[in-house]
């Protein structure tokens, strides 16, 4: 199974294929033209070591769309039920954080939690997509740290502020 990342290389954000402790820059559109850059000899050229790379958030998305209260046990812990319809909230692009990035704790909160989630990385803009179009738009699955200022979330009806601080995704 291939692994991909977004790194800063030469001062520019690039999408890469991760191979062990090294990476190769992906040519073409970041999510759908996944042919690694070829050297003049036709060989795949390894361009760098991950140990010296600057990690970026996996996407430069304008927003993160999330579903809340969909795990029965966690909803019950919060004193809530699983909604009949999905509870949708967004996180701003400034919440996106890179692999190994530091989470900045907001002064307004005294109770910050993390939640391990599974995220879908959508590789192209979709609007009113059919099920089939939506499935073709998924580039990858990734681990996602959904960080929440739980004390703020408990005081408010919406999830946006408690989950939307910078570095909280």
Provide a brief overview of the structure.
By secondary structure, this protein is mainly beta. Helices cover 14% and strands 34% of the residues.
Task: Please state roughly what percent of the residues sit in beta strands, choosing from under 5%, 5-15%, 15-25%, 25-35%, 35-45% or over 45%.
Answer: 25-35%
The N- to C-terminal Cα distance equals 24 Å
Order of helices and strands: EEEEEEHEEHEHH
Fold-level CATH name of the largest domain: Fumarylacetoacetate hydrolase, domain 2
Q: What strand line-up does the widest sheet have? A: 4-3-2-1-5
Can you identify the CATH superfamily of the largest domain? Fumarylacetoacetase-like, C-terminal domain
Main beta sheet: strand number and arrangement? 5 strands, antiparallel
**Helicity, as a percent range:** 10-25%
Multimer state = single chain
CATH class of the largest domain, please? Alpha Beta
* Count of folded domains: 2
Structural class: mainly beta
Mean pLDDT: 84
Shape: globular
Low-confidence stretches: 30-42
| Beta strands, count | 9
SS summary, helix count: 4
Radius of gyration: 18 Å
CATH architecture of the largest domain: Alpha-Beta Complex
Notes on the protein architecture:
The protein is mainly beta and 169 residues long. The chain has 2 domains: 3-55; 63-163, Alpha-Beta Complex (Fumarylacetoacetate hydrolase, domain 2). 14% of the residues lie in helices and 34% in strands. It has 4 helices and 9 strands; from the N terminus they run E-E-E-E-E-E-H-E-E-H-E-H-H. The strands form 3 sheets. The protein has a 5-stranded antiparallel β-sheet, with no helix packed on it.
């Amino acid at each position: 199974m291939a692994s991909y990342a977004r790194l800063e290389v030469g001062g520019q954000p690039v999408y890469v294929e991760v191979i062990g402790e090294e990476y190769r820059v992906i040519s073409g559109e970041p999510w759908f033209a996944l042919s690694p850059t070829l050297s003049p000899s036709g060989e795949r050229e390894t361009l760098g070591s991950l140990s010296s790379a600057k990690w970026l958030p996996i996407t430069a998305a304008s927003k993160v769309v999330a579903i809340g209260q969909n795990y029965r046990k966690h909803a019950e812990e919060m004193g809530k039920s699983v909604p009949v319809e999905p509870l949708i909230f967004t996180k701003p692009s400034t919440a996106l954080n890179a692999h190994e990035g530091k989470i900045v704790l907001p002064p307004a909160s005294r109770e910050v939690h993390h939640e391990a989630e599974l995220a879908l990385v959508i590789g192209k803009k979709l609007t009113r997509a059919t099920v089939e179009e939506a499935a073709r738009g998924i580039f990858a699955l990734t681990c996602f740290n959904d960080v929440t200022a739980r004390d703020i979330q408990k005081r408010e009806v919406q999830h946006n502020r408690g989950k939307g601080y910078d570095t909280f995704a």
